[in-house]
């Protein structure tokens, strides 16, 4: 099971935080700081694993990958394959790339909701559900279309109500 | 005007984007440091806005407010528990965006203590039944993250329906959600399990992947229950071409195979086939892992895995290399050959730039350690340690220490080498393993008699180096060095030098606790020197007591003569510094026997002869040195130091008195009984040279119960209570316990010393008495006999070689083997728990026994404990179910016998129907239960999992029976 997905920038600022078992938000940020402390001390061309037994329990593993200014981090337990998690990370990033057309940190910063909905299509309750980035992108597009549609509908009555007054 | 503010809000409301921009602006202005006052005022201002806006009646305004709050909560750790109700309100919105915002907020911020969570039940149910797949999916996502037992119970029917959804998109989400629901509400397994199993045969890879993922999680917790599903998993293993699915199936088999060896035979071939054919590294690695963890009996498979591991190791990708090393570490216990074949890569990886790889390589190197190569490997590793960064350096030292000390130093043959290695480690610049080295130095000193001279030698080298005192990390080691030097001072070549080292000015850099050890050691050295000065013959005799008990006795009788003769001689300054000369007059003074013995002694113990330095002047010099150094510390605020300094000063007083007394003719004093000081020194020396030894784990058990002491009953209760806790502690820190006992002993003897300083013969005798009684707490003396001979012959041999060159060494050697008997003559004290082989083996056996107990306990716990937990989370009726389950398990092996199976099934069915009547939660339970008896499935061991079969079979009873009939033989066939 996947325990957490975290995206943070190279300054240690979290950009996306999703824990699949409840953690108090203060605890989440404490964990993120500890992870960052280890991450920033690692060279570029080394393996993508960090030992996190002390942070997440004895069974936990962590893989991370650097994309431009961002660290993508997956924390999971022995029910997942380390290399498969790296692949999944690739899927996630590819999907983001498809949805935002050359994704960069700013896209992730300003599209908090959309990034969450993309992630939710890939992972649900810690289980990997979809590994095809096109499928995920399609679902995410549908969702944002629905949102936009809903928005335009709702704006009208509120404005008309105002002009009537 | 009620709509006024809300309208204004909606028009001029900051959007989430505005908020983010504002945050970034303030962060930039405030520099990189997060949480600066400026940005935090901005955040709190924004929260105030949110608090106002979120009360708005306008959905859009409210939505935006909640979005902002969620953002701040998730990325800035702002509390949003107060907004829980708003989230629920929005989730019921008809506008998709608002609904999504509401659900997202809920899934991120809700937890089981959120009190309004139950208000969400209705909305979730509605959305789970919605025609819009995205609404359903939102509800499922939310449910999977915030599920509580209540929600799980109430929404199980909806989930059950969704498991049959014709949209794969929904179905797989429902499957993943079911996992969480199972965990929180085990009864739902009865409802949904059958559908899960059916979906294993689904053609859609996405759905199979989700299902297999769920089973992987479930099997992780309690694999045995899923053995009956092995045929389905096997089919997937053979047929599926999807790596995600295969990885999960492999994980399931890794759990199942150890439970059913016959299963291993079936799956090993397909797994090897995948391993040979696949191009995906992830799948290849999973195959390797499955083989090295669960299929180690299949030699061909292990061989193939080892080959593939080799490929991983030669990859450039550090990830693959790391995983390869991990797999190698897993294979090491079973096939050390695989490791040795890759020795080169492993050693090279030690200097890899990647920490992970280095650590893994180190683990592997340590796995290769054996009696033959331990010295070589340690040499290589210490060289690496000298070159590497502090963290890895200490990792190396730590693993050397733990590997070498494993199982009472079982890999170490040459203890002299190991002790000097410990000394060397102390000098490694980054060494932070002081505590461990300290423990081992002391431990080896106590356990391994033969190595004591080397321990003292190493200790001396550490003590006299003033540079080491500045490094706080090795203070602990110095403490050990001081302790062994004091405790085994008889092996010291130059007590005067030792004393100087113990009292050197830089010792003020030491922490008080270590300093106290230094002073205590100085006390021991001084006692020893004084004793040697007052009773040189006895001191020598003691050291060769094994040569002839008579010697000792002889000297005892003659002691007064010789003392007087000797002291007279000593008062002549010139001769004092020549050890050889020292004994000449003695010979004259002593009787014929004595003469002969002394001439022997002189040669035998030239090590001790060096202490011939202890002429009066020399002793006085030492006394003066000690006094001048320690006197100022008598006022120390540290109790430990003050206490010990006072002891030493007291001793000095005694010695002074005695030395001056020497001028008076001895005989008279003897007659008048004023020779007390001398006697006290002797008693003290005897007390101090009592051996402290490791204490057997079972020592406490061998203490005979004093009459009239009624502890037994209570203690046996205690055992029952504490037994579980104590065992793990002992197995992992087996040395800890003995040591703490030893510490007690030390303090006891300290007290004793202190009191002995008072010239009261009464208290002395009392304390001797006490000590005698105290001795009971150690091992019985039976072991003692084994001590001298059993010790590793290799060690002796190597010593012998050196000995040939140097007479000194010979002396040392003999002395060494003789020392043991020094004490026993005084009284048959069982304290002499040296580590002899017999004892060691005894303890080892004990430990392994304990370990096995632990393992089987753990297995029991994994197999039954989880069930217990699971069933306890159900209602109390489930007691029956767990009974039934265990019975079922018991029956499983017999299942190939069709008769017994059917009987069992019938029985189960009856039981079930009885049980189910008790249950209240399902609406339709009672009418179903009547039919259940017929359809009760044997498909899974879990009553929980078997129930749904029953339920379904009650609906489709006709084929339900067929299923039972068809399925039950399938499993055993497969397994056979």
Walk me through the structure.
The complex is a heterodimer of chains A (165) and B (976). Mean pLDDT of chain A is 87; it is low at 154-165. Chain A is an alpha+beta fold and 165 residues long. Helices cover 53% and strands 21% of the residues of chain A. The longest helix of chain A is centred in the C-terminal third of the chain and has 32 residues, at 133-164. Chain A has a single domain (2-151), classed as 2-Layer Sandwich (Beta-Lactamase). In chain A, the strands form two sheets. Chain A has a five-stranded antiparallel β-sheet with strand order 2-1-5-4-3, with helices on both faces. A two-stranded antiparallel sheet of chain A has the order 6-7. Chain A contains six helices and seven strands, in the order ββαβαββαααββα. By secondary structure, chain B is an all-alpha fold. Chain B has a domain at 494-541 and 613-662 and 677-689. In chain B, helix 17 packs antiparallel against helix 18 (318-331) and helix 21 runs parallel beside helix 23. Mean pLDDT of chain B is 70; it is low at 545-613, 664-673, 726-761 and 774-976. At the A-B interface, strand 2, helix 1, strand 3, helix 3 and helix 5 of A face helix 2, helix 4, helix 6, helix 8 and helix 10 of B. Chain B: This is AP-3 complex subunit delta. Chain B: Adaptor protein complex 3 (AP-3) is a heterotetramer. Chain B: One of its GO terms (cellular component) is AP-3 adaptor complex. Chain B: It is found in: Endomembrane system; Golgi apparatus. Chain B: Residues 912-931 have a biased composition (Basic residues). Chain A: It is found in: Endomembrane system.
Overall radius of gyration of chain A: 18 Å
What string, H for helix and E for strand, traces the elements of chain A in order? EEHEHEEHHHEEH
Shape of chain A: globular
How far apart the termini of chain A lie comes to 55 Å
| Strand content bin of chain A | 15-25%
**Form type of chain B:** elongated
CATH architecture of chain A: 2-Layer Sandwich
Which pair has the most extensive contact?
Answer: A-B, 58 and 72 residues
CA-atom Rg of chain B in angstroms: 39 Å
CATH topology of chain A: Beta-Lactamase
Helix proportion of chain B: over 70%
Largest sheet of chain B: none
Output the number of helix runs of chain B: 51
> Main sheet of chain A: which strands, in order across?
2-1-5-4-3
Subunit structure (chain B): Adaptor protein complex 3 (AP-3) is a heterotetramer.
Subcellular location (chain B): Endomembrane system; Golgi apparatus
Organism (chain B): Coffea arabica (Arabian coffee)
Keywords (chain B): Golgi apparatus, Membrane, Protein transport, Repeat, Transport
